[in-house]
Amino acid sequence: MTLFSLALNQLFLVFAPFAWSMRLGRRISIAMTFTVIFGAVVLLLKTRMSLNPFPIPLLARLLGTRLMLGLLAVSFYLRGGVWLASWFALLVQARHLVSLLAIESPHGS
User: Fold this and answer.
1) What is the pLDDT of residues 51-79, one digit of tens each?
2) Is the CB of residue 40 less than 8 Å from the CB of residue 63?
3) Is the pLDDT confidence value at 4 over 70?
4) Region 10-37: what's the mean pLDDT?
5) d(Cα 4, Cα 95) in Å, to the nearest integer?
6) Of 95, 41, 78, nearest to 63 (Cα)?
7) Strands (E), 1-109
8) Domain ranges of the chain
9) Average pLDDT along the chain
10) What is the DSSP letter of 54?
11) Which one, 3, 25, 59, 73, has least CB within 10 Å?
12) d(C-alpha 34, C-alpha 106), whole Å
């Protein structure tokens, strides 16, 4: 999942929408706003396709997190390019490493 997030998630949710909206609007503020809102709309579409409805507080928290991470990803992309935005995505995905390391071994050490 981490490799998918680094390769395709950033491409389809940050880089491509930002480049497309920069060509259309020619203003960074418009492109940044469109990119962040596009990521939020994709999240809402994904939650609507779920068989179980999301509780409103969880949905609001996920939406807020998506908006904040989208804004950070675009700002890192503007400041440092693809490498800094990809590094940021790797750090966000590294949060799962803690839970993987916390799993006990099957031999019970």
Assistant:
1) 998 999 999 999 999 999 999 999 999 99
2) yes
3) yes
4) 94
5) 16
6) 41
7) none
8) 2-102
9) 87
10) P
11) 3
12) 47
DSSP category for residue 103:
S
DSSP state of 56: H
Give the C-alpha separation, 31 to 67, whole Å: 14
Angle at 8 between CA 95 and CA 33, to 5 degrees: 85
Q: From CA 86, how far away is CA 88, in angstroms rounded?
A: 5
The pair of structure tokens assigned to 41 is 């709309």
Half-sphere exposure (Cβ direction) of 87: Cα atoms closer than 13 Å = 9
pTM: predicted TM-score of the whole model, two decimal places = 0.78
Inter-residue contact 53 to 32 (CB < 8 Å): no
Single-letter residue type at 67 = L
Q: Which residue has the tokens 């068989």?
A: 51
Q: Examine the pLDDT at 39 and tell me if it is beyond 80.
A: yes
